[in-house]
Each structure stands twice: as structure tokens, then as C-alpha cells.
Design goal:
By secondary structure, this protein is α/β, with parallel strands linked by helices. It has 18 helices and 12 strands. It has 3 domains: 55 residues, no CATH class; 135 residues, Rossmann fold (3-Layer(aba) Sandwich), CATH 3.40.50.10860; 163 residues, Rossmann fold (3-Layer(aba) Sandwich). A 7-stranded mixed beta sheet has the order 9-8-7-6-10-11-12, with helices on both faces. The longest helix has 25 residues. The chain is globular and about 60 Å long. The structure holds NADPH dihydro-nicotinamide-adenine-dinucleotide phosphate and (2Z)-2-iminopentanedioic acid.
Length: 449
């Protein structure tokens, strides 16, 4: 389905397949980057000789460990946890922790790999890493989640540090989990090391606007893509998949900018609300009551809930996949294009399949890949680290302003780099190339390490 690699890159890719068997998502993420690097390799033959690509594709360190914990009835459970410290050329390893039953090494490696380039694009001093566990927080009590987090951190703490590795949230890990993880880290190390975690609560070292940052940032990215085409968000209909942290704040910002968001989802089904999603209600259901989105129609009686429905069948002009990897395939992309789609921005990591990306590309859709479009979250994490390092707290307005500037810069870098490397308007080429070059130059400067 995806584009062919040139000969040299194909050899590298085959070797990666052989060295990392069974890690499908990691293979997909690597292939997507290699597909775009042909022109870079021609222009920088030195990087080929120094095997920079092979080095970038091999994590600096991978930690896999057992997490035993007891549920409220006293039954013992064993989960597996991961932290993949992928690349520290630009700063300490930085990236979220994901708790979801689907987690295995291939998922954490794809996320960690993408994080390297995303973090480089933010222009902040952060390397790339990712972690997580196959623990499923759904249906667990607070006490169970706490015991799990404490057990996990009892092993992970020795690998972390504000100058070493700085985790944050991702699917299934929000402020509650960060609190339990940070609390245990603090207890074991006897250090109030705020900068070792981001996504903390506002009372204990967190940054204003971090919670909102990924979703807001994705919408700012759409805004920039549309402006580059002399178009605007105001008045557009939008569909956002998922109803978690990224989705909620994407819906909030899009609504503020005049879009009408008519649908969102969870893994159980989809909500369609032609009058526009009521964000306050969505927040209460998801953040306060921790319920499923099916509860939304209990209060908004004109809205509909369809169990197992496909959100991409809802006609819209802007689509924001904000749930999980490979949630939007070729068939979905085709239907979206037929329904009048103008722009897509990936709030999630790798939500569009290679076939979906090809269809968007051929149809001339403005397509913002996750590495660029969802980088506002980790960029604001870096702003949280900055505030922690200077023992300062910034206002919401100031922090959101910085986030907005960063998203404008990321768009500019991706746009201009795509142009420079012969693929005008292709943000996938632009983001991969700009991110890669920054990391490659730093690795090269530091010698063979
Ligand atoms: P949350 O856990 O807050 O929300 C995840 C949402 O996606 C939920 O609605 C969930 O539904 C849905 N979802 C998750 N897994 C699946 C699945 N396998 N199939 C169908 N639906 C699924 O996570 P976030 O909002 O933080 O993360 C969403 C995406 O954004 C992820 O891809 C993440 O990597 C990415 N991201 C997150 C950032 C952040 O700052 N949090 C930053 C950059 C990217 P259900 O509740 O039914 O499981
Ligand atoms: O995918 C991501 O960029 C995140 N989950 C956020 C990472 C971070 O360190 O804030």
C-alpha cells in the first residue's frame, strides 16, 4: 500500500524487520519516516556513511519489567511494563506513559520512535522516549490504580530523573495516575524533583494549559494549514474521534474558533450532535464522572448514540482523529473525501493507515501528521519543565500564547522544509525531514555514541 523505498533505504528497512520481529506498529512508523528520507540521503551522503538512520532506529535503552499488584479483593495480578529510551541527542528522554491492554513492545517502540522527531520539531531541548503497560485502568478503583502505579514506579524510578528521562501521560494516564507515580518517585528518592514528570496537578508543579495543550495545538495546526490555503476554521463542520484528553480540548478550541463539532466517540460507539457537541457536558461525563460517552444522550436528547458506529461515515469538512493508532483506514479516507473533506490533523499518534494517507495525499487534502499536529502536548510539557527548573508558575494566557507560537513555528518548519525538499504542501515530508535533520546533526556532532 505504501510507497516503495529506494534501494539503500530498503536494505536498512529489511534489516530493521529482521531485528525487530512481530513489532508491526514499529515497522509501520519506521517505514513512514524512511519513505520520506530519500532526498535527505542524497543531499547528506555523510549521514549515510555514518549510519545515522540505523542508529536512530535502534533505541538507546529498553527496559521491560514485571509489575505485581493486588486488587481490592486481595487477588494478585501481574502486568508487564516498558520504558523505551529511544534518543537523547537533544535532551533527556521525553514522552508519555500509556496504560492500555493492547500495549506491547511494538506499540511503545512506535510511539518512542515518533516522539524523537516530534520533540525535535518543537525546538525544545527534549529527546525521545515512551513507556507504558498492558494494565487496563477501566473499571479499576482509585486504590487499585494507586497500588499498580506504586508498584510500577518502585522499579521505574531508578531509570528516571529531570536530566535523564521525564515521563508524562498518554492513553489511560492522566493527572490521577501522574499523581500516584510522582508521589511514589518522591517517596523513594526523597527528592521533590518536579521536573521528573509533566502533566502534574496545578497545586503540585503542573503547568497551566498542559491539559489543554495537545487538543488546542492540533486545532492551531489546522488553523495554520487552512490559512496557508487562504481558508479558515470558522464555519466549518468538524468530527473528532475519541473523547479523552486530546479529543475534549480539540473540541473546545475548535468550537471557540467558530467550527461546529458534530461528532465524537469512544471504543464503544459514536455520538452525533448536529447542534454542536456540548463541551461542558462532555467534560463532566468524562473527567468528573469517568463514564462512557453513551451517557451524553441521557441529557442531550436530540443527540444520538450509535453503538459500534464508524465516526468517519459522518460527513464533515475537518476530521481530527484523536483516539488511537490505525483508527482511520483507506475506506474511511475515501468516504471522508467523497463527503467534502478539506483538512485532517492527527491529534492521536499514527491514527491514519498508510493507505488512508495515500488517499488524502492524492485528493489534495491538507494533512497534518501527528508528529507536527499533536506536538503541542509535549511542547507544553517542556514549558512545564522550564517552569519547574526556574521554580516559577506562568499564567494560562502566557502559557497558551507560547503554545500557539510554537504551533505556528512547527507549521512553518514543516511547510518550508517540504518545499525545500521538493514536496510542496506535503506536511508528512516536511515534518519527518525537519525533525530528522535536527536530530541527525546533533548525533553527528556528538560523535559515535
Ligand atoms: P485518553 O486515554 O484520555 O483517551 C483516549 C480516547 O481514545 C478514549 O476516548 C478511548 O476510548 C479512545 N481509544 C483509546 N484506545 C482505543 C482503541 N484501541 N480503540 C478505540 N478507541 C480507543 O488518551 P489521550 O486523549 O491522551 O490520547 C489519545 C491519542 O492522542 C493517543 O494516540 C495518544 O498517543 C495521543 N497523544 C496524546 C497526548 C497527550 O498529551 N495526552 C499528546 C500527543 C498525542 P475508550 O475510553 O473507550 O478506551
Ligand atoms: O504522544 C505524546 O506526545 C504524549 N503523549 C505527550 C508526551 C509528553 O511528554 O508530554
Amino acid at each position: 500500500m505504501s510507497a516503495r523505498l529506494d534501494e539503500k533505504l530498503d536494505l536498512i528497512y529489511r534489516d530493521i524487520l529482521q531485528r525487530n520481529p512481530g513489532e508491526d506498529e514499529f515497522h509501520q512508523a519506521v517505514h513512514e519516516v524512511l519513505e520520506t528520507l530519500g532526498p535527505v540521503m542524497s543531499r547528506y551522503p555523510d549521514f549515510v556513511d555514518k549510519k545515522i538512520i540505523q542508529r536512530i532506529c535502534e533505541p538507546e535503552r529498553q527496559i521491560i519489567f514485571r509489575v505485581p499488584w493486588q486488587d481490592d479483593k486481595g487477588e494478585v495480578h501481574i502486568n508487564r511494563a516498558f520504558r523505551v529510551e529511544f534518543n537523547s541527542a537533544l535532551g533527556p528522554y521525553k514522552g508519555g506513559m500509556r496504560f492500555h491492554p493492547s500495549v506491547y513492545l511494538g506499540i511503545i517502540k512506535f510511539l518512542g520512535f515518533e516522539q524523537i522527531f516530534k520533540n525535535a520539531l518543537t525546538n525544545m531541548p527534549i529527546g525521545g522516549g515512551k513507556g507504558g503497560s498492558d494494565f487496563d485502568p477501566k473499571g479499576k478503583s482509585d486504590a487499585e490504580v494507586m497500588r499498580f502505579c506504586q508498584s510500577l514506579m518502585t522499579e521505574l524510578y531508578r531509570h528516571l530523573g529531570e536530566y535523564t528521562d521525564v515521563p508524562a501521560g498518554d492513553i489511560g494516564v492522566g493527572q490521577r495516575e501522574i499523581g500516584y507515580l510522582f508521589g511514589q518517585y518522591k517517596r523513594i528518592t526523597n527528592r521533590y524533583e518536579s521536573g521528573v514528570f509533566t502533566g502534574k496537578g496545578l497545586d503540585w508543579g503542573g503547568s497551566r494549559a498542559r491539559k489543554e495543550a495537545t487538543g488546542y495545538g492540533a486545532v492551531y495546526f489546522v488553523d495554520e494549514m487552512l490559512k496557508a490555503r487562504k481558508d479558515k476554521i470558522d464555519g466549518k463542520t468538524m468530527v473528532v474521534s475519541g473523547s479523552g484528553n486530546v479529543a475534549i480540548y480539540a473540541i473546545e478550541k475548535a468550537t471557540q474558533l467558530g467550527a461546529k463539532v458534530i461528532a465524537c466517540s469512544d471504543s464503544g460507539g459514536i455520538i452525533v450532535d448536529e447542534e454542536g457537541i456540548d463541551v461542558a457536558l462532555l467534560k463532566r461525563i468524562k473527567e468528573v464522572e469517568r463514564r462512557r460517552i453513551s451517557a451524553y444522550v441521557e441529557e442531550r436528547t436530540k443527540a444520538t448514540y450509535t453503538e459500534g458506529g464508524n465516526i468517519w461515515s459522518v460527513p464533515c469538512q475537518i476530521a481530527l482523529p484523536c483516539a488511537t493508532q490505525n483508527e482511520l483506514n483507506g475506506k474511511d479516507a475515501k468516504q471522508l473525501v467523497e463527503n467534502g473533506l478539506v483538512a485532517v490533523a492527527e491529534g492521536a499518534n499514527m491514527p491514519t493507515t498508510p493507505e488512508g494517507m495515500r488517499i488524502f495525499d492524492e485528493a489534495g487534502i491538507a494533512f497534518g501528521p501527528g508528529k507536527a499536529a499533536n506536538a503541542g502536548g509535549v511542547a507544553t510539557s517542556a514549558l512545564e519543565m522550564q517552569q519547574n527548573a526556574s521554580r516559577d508558575t506562568w499564567t494560562f494566557k502566557h502559557t497558551e500564547g507560547r503554545l500557539h507560537e510554537i504551533m505556528i513555528e512547527i507549521h512553518k518548519a514543516a511547510y518550508e522544509t517540504a518545499d525545500e525538499f521538493g514536496s510542496p504542501g506535503n506536511y508528512v515530508v516536511g515534518a519527518n525531514t525537519a525533525g530528522f535533520l535536527k536530530v541527525a546533526r546533533a548525533m553527528d556532532a556528538m560523535g559515535l555514541v
